[in-house]
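Running co-folding for adenosine-5'-diphosphate.
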Amino acid sequence: MADEFDAGIAREWVRVIAVRVSEQATYLGELDGAIGDGDHGGNLDRGFAAAVGKLDRTTDSAREVLTATGGALISAVGGASGPLYGTYFRKLARALPEHGGASAAELGAALQVGVDGVRALGGAAEGDKTMVDALVPAAAAFAETATDGLPAAAVAAAEAARRGADATVPLRARKGRASYLGERSEGHLDPGAASSALVLAALAEVVGG
Ligand code: ADP
Ligand code: MG
């Protein structure tokens, strides 16, 4: 169980996300096929594979690891989710200490900065049926439970992300490609919210929660 979010844990987080995304790529593509263009799984698979390819070139800080990850996502993914996840990782990285690792409280604050970046870039609020619906409650849950330590906070964040993603099913999409469907987007899980739940589950996995 980790008590500090350091460069090694950050690298492991990116590696585990890449593995889980690859395992779930078909499923994420099917979710996107229902209310979008079907490329979400492929987009993230390509993006996180590119991010893993950058890991060895990063050095001692979690901040540097996740900055490189964000850059790789922005360069490798053409769809909306590339710049959005890229911004998430870059903004949260910049909120981390310049050297070494971060405490649970510091990571909790950084996750909130990351999601603020996603909201600023994409203009989505909670309830618009996007990744924001998973990332916002995840950051809040992490920050609220940070005093219980990194593993407990990461588990709380993963559970909140999962609940937030599941709650997108009845919603009508108001941002992104799915919004073109209007009421026909109702009754489907948002693919970006589903992938965000997976990103937070990977964090819980690597910190030992
Ligand atoms: P594209 O929509 O370009 O095909 P993806 O399929 O990879 O890109 O990603 C779709 C996901 O991106 C959606 O399910 C949604 O969660 C997220 N998304 C799209 N637009 C926005 C936005 N403006 N703000 C936040 N998230 C968004
Ligand atoms: Mg798509």
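Result summary
The chain has a mean pLDDT of 96.
The CA atoms of residues 128 and 141 lie 20 Å apart.
Job closed.
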